[in-house]
Amino acid sequence: MNRPLAAQRALHSVGPLLLLALLPLAAALAACDGGGEAAGGAPPPAPPELSHGVLRVGSDIPFLPFASFPEGATTPAGIDVDVAQALGEELGVTADFQDLDVDSRIPSLEAGEVDAIISAMTITEARRQRIDFIPYFRGGTGILVPRGNPTGIRVDYHLCLHTVAVQDRTIQLDQLNALNTGLCAGDVKIHIKAFEQHSQAVAELLAGGADAVLADYPQALNDVVLSAGSVQVIDFQIHPVIYGIGVRRGSPELKQALTQALIAIMKDGTYDAIMKRWGARAGAWKQVAS
């Protein structure tokens, strides 16, 4: 999941791309506020993909904490699973997850083997050339701190003067070095401890040898689970990118239905409850319901 700094910044600078992605969401929100009916009072057509009462969801499993099989379980659990199930309930169908590797997600969608991809998939221009997206989550670099956040770190520049552990040769190390030449330059530099493995950086935090750890946001969320709550992720991310629900280009009715369902679970608090349940409030996507 670690990316070169330039690439992640490029993904972060997607203003025009997000405007394009949000246009159909704005239209769907207007329809939803108007009673969910199309012009002339007729309800929108039901998506043919849902005619059998099932939404077939493609996802790369496991990818903690978005989708994985808990020990001894045959059904997945995670952020994406909860979001898909909530969307299914809103649409009156059952969400059925199908395990697909990263490279087969889009081809399987295009071939009609699944109806949607809900798999922590970053929206990129290359992917938008093939499928449509509904933005639903923000994921960048997360900041791990001990439970209770004893040093009061709330944003990236609060790392100044603190000791931060990080995996070597990662985008997160580049970000710390950038802070030390920018916001934390001079006498307030961050003391960086780089380790060969991410797990070693987390162990340093748990042992009290560091005040924070930088990692990919999904990885940081999983560290909270693995530590049984001994660490927490602050409600702030560095250079977040946008994850989207993937829908086939030829499925406008399904895209509209999923968009309106996402708006509904954001408005009634279901979406925020899912993010809170998984400690992922900093990843919550707000624009749909704004």
Give an overview in words:
The protein is elongated, with a radius of gyration of 20 Å. The relative contact order is 0.19. The chain folds into two domains: 5-139 and 241-289, D-Maltodextrin-Binding Protein, domain 2 (3-Layer(aba) Sandwich); 140-239, D-Maltodextrin-Binding Protein, domain 2. It has helices at residues 5-12, 15-33, 79-91, 105-110, 125-128, 171-180, 198-206, 217-226, 252-267, 270-277; strands at 54-59, 94-99, 116-117, 132-146, 163-167, 191-195, 212-216, 231-247. An eight-stranded mixed sheet has the order 2-1-3-8-4-7-5-6, sandwiched between helices. The chain is α/β, with parallel strands linked by helices. It has ten helices and eight strands. Residues 1-20 and 26-40 have low confidence and may be disordered. 36% of the residues lie in helices and 21% in strands.
